[in-house]
Automatic annotation (TrEMBL), chain A:
This is Succinate dehydrogenase cytochrome b subunit. The lineage of its organism: Bacteria, Pseudomonadati, Bacteroidota, Flavobacteriia, Flavobacteriales. InterPro entries: Cytochrome_b-558, SQR/QFR_C/D. The chain crosses the membrane at residues 62-83, 109-129, 218-241, 261-285. Gene3D superfamilies: Fumarate reductase/succinate dehydrogenase, transmembrane subunit. CDD domains: SQR_TypeB_2_TM. SUPFAM superfamilies: Fumarate reductase respiratory complex transmembrane subunits.
Automatic annotation (TrEMBL), chain B:
InterPro entries: 2Fe-2S_ferredoxin-like_sf, 2Fe2S_fd_BS, 4Fe4S_Fe-S-bd, Beta-grasp_dom_sf, Helical_ferredxn, SDH/FRD_Iron-Sulfur, Succ_DH/fum_Rdtase_N. Belongs to the succinate dehydrogenase/fumarate reductase iron-sulfur protein family. This is Succinate dehydrogenase/fumarate reductase iron-sulfur subunit. NCBIfam families: PRK07570.1 (NF005746). It holds the Pfam family Fer2_3. Transmembrane segments: none annotated. Its cofactor is [2Fe-2S] cluster; [3Fe-4S] cluster. It comes from Flavobacterium macrobrachii.
From TrEMBL, chain C:
Pfam families: FAD_binding_2, Succ_DH_flav_C. Residues 533-668 form the Fumarate reductase/succinate dehydrogenase flavoprotein-like C-terminal domain. The keyword Oxidoreductase applies. Gene3D superfamilies: FAD/NAD(P)-binding domain (3.50.50.60), Fumarate reductase/succinate dehydrogenase flavoprotein-like, C-terminal domain (1.20.58.100), Succinate dehydrogenase/fumarate reductase flavoprotein, catalytic domain (3.90.700.10). This is Fumarate reductase/succinate dehydrogenase flavoprotein subunit. It comes from Flavobacterium macrobrachii. Residues 35-471 form the FAD-dependent oxidoreductase 2 FAD-binding domain. PANTHER family: SUCCINATE DEHYDROGENASE 2 FLAVOPROTEIN SUBUNIT, SUCCINATE DEHYDROGENASE FLAVOPROTEIN SUBUNIT. Signal peptide: none annotated. It comes from the Bacteria.
Length: 286, 253, 669
């Protein structure tokens, strides 16, 4: 009884929404902390280092899988809830005045959530997928002046450098051009003759990000949509944060005002900080 | 009461012959309604007019007309029990309306509360939830212990009372955008959970009542808080949280 | 008819215990073979159904509402009495017994009342065990307050919603039995006739109010717990659906109807606002603990107030007549209900009424003195021994709000006036009916197998009920009396077997009901049911109300008889019989109210004395107090139905013997 109830009952669904939702709030905070590095001038390397850490550290990996699962659960559970809730009122009211008794966000969590899901998918296509699967992902380079000549160098994870002119994109290309090094597995530098790994580059997520929001054709639209999405997130959080505490049964007259206040601040500050980044990149960053 | 005056109003009322028939909103004009009348007295007046015109009067539920039996319902101008807060329809007075107003009157809308006729709905789902566990399993012999044998902190007793003040009218379900009954069930679970007498069966009670609630086809709570605002007895959302807590405890046992 | 009250022998304090010990029992294995019908699910009905179901009988329970939880017991505000003596103020079973007999103006049965007082403590134990959240003190123990007509604090309460909490307690016990399958519940069903087979109650005809279907239900015993008949007056504090139909139907089948003229008019209700008023709202008697009742001393002032030229708060202290404190210094504003009501009527009749309606009927219930007193106390309690006037007022209002907040809010919603600032307007209204179906000590009517409990019977309150005693009686009957006495009756029924609903008696009864319904629906009259009900109410209020006299009663009897003829000829009942038809329901109920109204007038006419709620203008002393006639009227009047013409009913008398209480004049001065 008890076990199946924890999966199927209406209250259990609330728990799942609450726990996954709260975990995603934690994720948001972490994600934000990482993203804010984009606002620091000349910080591309650190940002990319951070990105590398986030994609390779085993602990972080586990966390990220939990995040994916949470998103999935949160969304599926949300859809189920919404479907059942619509079914619970087959005939609607001719006249209804819900604004008299509840907030906009609380009544529109499903719509807001769906929009956020759409955003997450596009966001992942734009960044996460590139990071993970793009065969031609740019690697971090720096430009140095050597004897009055500008030279572009790859930065390597072992803190070494490698001139870009010496590196071919593929083995075949290297064979043709006679380059000493070619790139294998998206990030690894291989010696063409010996065919041994000589180092590894940083995926240049910074570059991807900046390019995305500075794109002459779509950059402005992307920035606007991103800001709008953060607005949607704010409304979702405005209800969702404190609602989660109610769902797991934390509601006492001493704690709930504090939780509500924190929830409000979280719901406003986090999305604003997220939104500042593309605006900064698009309009301010040179 | 000396400030009472008469107003003329238009009514848009849901008419439905029986549970199977298709219903529709019908329009009526009613003149000379005293603002000192209660909302249901206004409907009495309408019915008197309809009977005199040899038409079918409007069926609506009502009984005590003093805000305690929970029999009256009605979704008035888009709100359960009308525009006044902390009030049942029977205690809503016409002074809340103005001359020339159009008033929408609809039955509670919920899958678990099917329409019986016009504005009358079937709320027996609430009874079945209560039957599933809303009690203390004590025999009615009177041979229990003395009433003062277990002191109960005043604060707990008061909280329990405030939960028990629920009149089972169903406004929470009607007003919830999800048609959820959690305020009703939460209040019942809380009443007992707060008292030592109720704690003995707390685990089974919350599991059984929630199971029955789900079987009845009520929607899920999304914490919009609309129920708390529209509840004529001001039952607090805290009760839903307490039920959630109790359920979690019970599920993990 | 010879009336046998079956009061057991022995000393009053031993009667019930000894009697119980010798009642016949039904063995557990036989109980499932026996069916019991309980009509009504208020305190008495719900507790009886729950108890009988728990014992193992097959119980069928009926209520006209959509849920048993809505029965009108739920509206009781003030509290429930019990002789617990938790407050150490000298209370005892005997004192509760004595207060109740005296409060009832020596027209109640000693043995029944003593039994009530005996089980009163158990009721509280039972309710607490069931999770009824009574008010408590900071030490965690139960709180008490005092009520009209007593000098001890024995009233247990749950804010202003005691009836609700007790009913929900009984409802939870009933729900438990329904869930266990031992009670089958029929919501939205109304009993429309009793079926008798070989002289015994064997079942009922009930109408499913949703489908209109007439159903036959058989049983080995039938319990009627359908409440009082205050709605004879149209305007009362009863619920709109409260009716006497079940009681009247059994009366027509041979149960005697006792003391119909004993009606309680509650002193503190909100006055009538106009012709469309559908019911009256009670302001709990507990308010009389804190409020002072007054009218203007001068008629001119009263008139100026009615015309809106003067505000009550502007009237100087010496221009106010605190008439209860003046007439009854010992009990003051806490005299019993009948006394308080009559005093208010006397003042209004003399031209001092303050309500601006057709009748000017209204007096003030003023909290300003209490605000000052409690405000000062609260200030002192906070260590402020020299509070400002504003501070005192503020603290006093806070105290009031804590104590009576819900009542004050309700008053404000209904009247649009703020009782913290201006005195409440109140006036007496019909509230409770002490009369009812005659029952013996077993709560059995004169029809074998037909038991009557709660307000529907007549037995415990005599000519006037004390506050907080109705809840006590309902639960006592249901939890602690019927389970014993019904079993005693059923002990002889274990061989009867299932009772068929195909017998001629069931067929006849059903056809009877069907014919009545068809007649109403095909009547094609011109006036609504409410039209007749309101007219009946006016006759009753004016001539069989708070003050009665021979001439008025005679007129009332004739007027009601004429109204009856007109009703059957000219009532219009729309709709059909096979659907939810509230107008039809009302028509069937009003038909019975009309009959009963006439009987009430007849009963009041024969009772040539004033006692309790029954006040005959001819029988009062020079100060307007009641003059009881114990020599000639120390009896229960029990009326026997003799057919369509109510004036033909026969009066039977059950002598009241007071063995343990010395009869005295009721004095609250």
């Amino acid at each position: 009884m008890a076990k199946s109830a924890l999966l199927k009952s209406s209250i259990a669904k609330k728990y799942w929404m609450a726990f996954t939702g709260l975990f995603l709030c934690l994720f948001l905070a972490g994600h934000l902390a990482g993203n804010l590095q984009l606002l620091v001038p000349n910080n591309a390397l650190n940002f990319n280092k951070y990105a590398l850490f986030m994609t390779t550290n085993p602990a972080v990996k586990i966390l990220s899988y939990v995040t994916y699962l949470s998103i999935l659960f949160h969304a599926v559970d949300g859809f189920l809830l919404t479907y059942q809730n619509i079914k619970a009122r087959p005939v609607g009211y001719a006249k209804s005045n819900p604004s008299a008794n509840s907030s906009f966000s609380s009544r529109n969590m499903a719509v807001l959530g769906t929009l956020i899901l759409v955003f997450i998918v596009t966001h992942m296509v734009n960044f996460w997928a590139k990071m993970h699967f793009d065969q031609n992902i740019p690697l971090q380079t720096i430009t140095v002046e050597v004897m009055g000549q500008k030279q572009e160098l790859y930065l390597m994870t072992n803190d070494g450098y490698m001139a870009t002119s010496q590196v071919a994109k593929t083995k075949e290309e290297a064979a043709k051009s006679g380059a000493q090094v070619y790139i294998k597995n998206r990030t690894e530098f291989y010696n063409t003759q010996a065919d041994v790994k000589v180092g590894e580059g940083y995926k240049d997520l910074y570059k991807i990000t900046v390019a995305f929001f500075k794109d002459p054709k779509y950059g402005l639209i992307a920035t606007i949509l991103y800001v709008v999405a953060m607005g949607v997130l704010a409304f979702h959080l405005l209800h969702g944060f404190q609602s989660a505490f109610q769902s797991i049964g934390l509601n006492s007259s001493t704690w709930i005002p504090k939780i509500k206040l924190f929830g409000k601040l979280f719901a406003i500050i986090v999305p604003i900080l997220f939104a500042i980044i593309p605006v900064y990149i698009h309009f301010i960053l040179k | 009461m000396s400030s009472a005056k008469n107003i003329n109003i238009n009514l848009k009322i849901w008419r439905q012959k029986n549970a199977k028939a298709k219903g529709s909103m019908e329009t009526y004009k009613l003149d000379n309604v005293s603002t000192a009348s209660s909302f249901l007295e206004m409907l009495d007046q309408l019915n008197e007019q309809l009977i005199n015109d040899k038409k079918e009067p409007v069926a609506f539920d009502h009984d005590c007309r003093e805000g305690i039996c929970g029999m009256c319902s009605l979704y008035i101008n888009g709100r359960a029990h009308g525009p006044d807060t902390g009030t049942t329809t029977c205690q809503l007075h016409m002074r809340k309306f103005n001359d020339g107003d159009t008033i929408f009157i609809e039955p509670w809308r919920s899958k678990a509360f099917p329409v019986v006729k016009d504005l009358v709905v079937d709320r027996s789902a609430f009874d079945r939830i209560q039957q599933a566990g809303g009690f203390v399993s004590v025999n009615t012999s009177g041979r229990t212990m003395d009433a003062n044998a277990i002191p109960i902190p005043k604060e707990d007793a008061d909280k329990s009372f405030m939960a028990a003040a629920c009149i089972g009218c169903g406004a929470c379900v009607a007003t919830c955008k999800n048609g959820s009954a959690m305020l009703f069930v939460g209040a019942k679970v809380s009443q007992y959970a707060l008292l030592p007498q109720g704690k003995v069966e707390a685990t089974q009670r919350v599991l059984n009542m929630v199971r029955q609630m789900d079987e009845e086809g009520f929607g899920n709570c999304t914490n919009t808080g609309a129920c708390e605002v529209e509840c004529p007895k001001g039952i607090s959302l805290e009760n839903i949280a307490r039920m959630n807590r109790e359920y979690l405890k019970a599920s993990l046992k | 008819m010879k009336l046998d009250s079956k009061i057991p022998e022995g000393h009053i304090s031993k009667k019930w215990t000894d009697y119980k010990d010798h009642l016949k029992l039904v063995a557990p294995n036989n109980r499932p073979k026996i069916d019991i019908i309980v009509v009504g699910t208020g305190l008495a009905g719900a507790s009886a159904a729950a108890s009988l179901g728990e014992m193992g009988y097959n119980v069928k329970a009926f209520c006209y509402q959509d849920s048993p939880r809505r029965a009108h017991s739920i509206a009781a505000q003030g509290g429930i009495n019990a002789a617990k003596n938790y407050q150490n103020d000298g209370d005892s079973i005997y004192r509760l017994f004595y207060d109740t007999i005296k409060g009832g103006d020596y027209r109640a049965r000693e043995a029944n009342v003593h039994r009530l007082a005996e089980v009163s403590g158990n009721i509280i134990d039972q309710c607490v065990a069931q999770g009824v959240p009574f008010a408590r003190e900071y030490g965690g123990l139960l709180d008490n307050r005092s009520f009209g007509g007593t000098q001890v604090q024995r009233t247990f309460y749950a804010a202003g919603q005691t009836g609700q909490q007790l009913l929900l307690g009984a409802y939870s016990a009933l729900s438990r039995q329904i869930g266990l399958g031992r009670v089958k519940m029929f919501n939205r069903h109304e009993m429309l006739d009793l079926v008798k087979v070989d002289g015994k109650a064997r079942g009922i005809i009930a109408r499913n109010l949703v489908t209109g279907e007439l159903e036959r239900h058989s049983a080995h015993a039938v319990v009627i717990a359908t409440g009082g008949y205050g709605n004879v007056y149209f305007l009362s504090t009863n619920a709109m659906g409260s009716n006497v139909t079940a009681g009247w139907k059994i009366h027509k089948k041979g149960a005697l109807f006792a003391n119909p003229c004993f009606v309680q008019i509650h002193p503190t209700c909100i006055p009538v606002h106009g012709v469309n008023q559908s019911k009256l709202t009670l302001m709990s008697e507990s308010l009389r603990n804190s409020g002072r009742i007054w009218v203007p001393k001068k008629k001119e002032d009263a008139e100026a107030i009615r015309e809106g030229k003067l505000k009550p708060t502007q009237l100087a202290e010496e221009d106010r007549d605190y008439f209860l404190e003046r007439r009854y210094p010992a009990f003051g504003n806490l005299v019993p209900r009948d006394v308080a009501s009559r005093a208010a009527k006397e003042r209004c009749d003399a031209g001092h009424g303050i309500e601006a309606n057709d009748t000017n009927e209204g007096v003030y219930l003023d909290f300003s003195t209490e605000i000052q007193n409690k405000g000062r106390q609260a200030a002192y309690a906070k260590g402020n021994h020299n509070p400002s006037a504003a501070e005192v007022t503020k603290l006093g209002k806070q105290w009031l709000e804590e104590k009576y907040g819900n009542l004050f809010t309700m008053y404000q919603k209904i009247t649009d006036e703020n009782p913290y600032e201006t005195p409440m307007k109140i006036y007496p209204a019909v509230h409770y009916t002490m009369g009812g179906v005659w029952v013996d000590y077993n709560l059995q009517s004169t029809i074998p197998g037909c038991f009557v409990a709660g307000e529907a019977n007549f037995s415990d309150h005599g000519a006037n009920r004390l506050g907080a005693s109705a809840l006590m009686q309902g639960l006592a009957d249901g939890y602690f009396v019927l389970p014993y006495t019904v079993s005693n009756y059923l002990a002889d029924e274990i061989r009867t077997g299932k009772i068929s609903t195909e017998s001629q008696e069931f067929i006849d009864a059903e056809n009877n009901v069907k014919n009545t319904i068809d007649k109403f629906l095909n009547n094609n009259g011109t006036k609504s049911v409410d039209h007749f009900h309101k007219r009946l109410g006016l006759i009753m209020w004016n001539k069989v109300g708070m003050a009665r006299n021979e001439q008025g009663l005679k007129q009332a009897i004739e007027e009601i008889a004429a109204l009856k003829e007109e009703f059957y000829k000219d009532v219009r009942v729309p709709g059909s019989s096979d659907e939810l038809n509230p107008e039809l329901e009302k028509a069937l109920r009003v038909a019975d109210f009309i009959d009963l109204g006439q009987l009430m007038a007849m009963d009041a006419l024969q009772r040539n004395e004033s006692c309790g709620g029954h006040f005959r203008e001819e029988y009062q002393d020079s100060e307007g107090e009641t003059l009881r006639d114990d020599e000639n009227f120390s009896f229960v009047s029990a009326w026997e139905y003799m057919g369509y013409d109510i004036s033909k009913e026969i009066l039977n008398k059950e002598e009241l013997k007071y063995e343990f209480i010395k009869i005295a004049a009721r004095n609250y001065k």
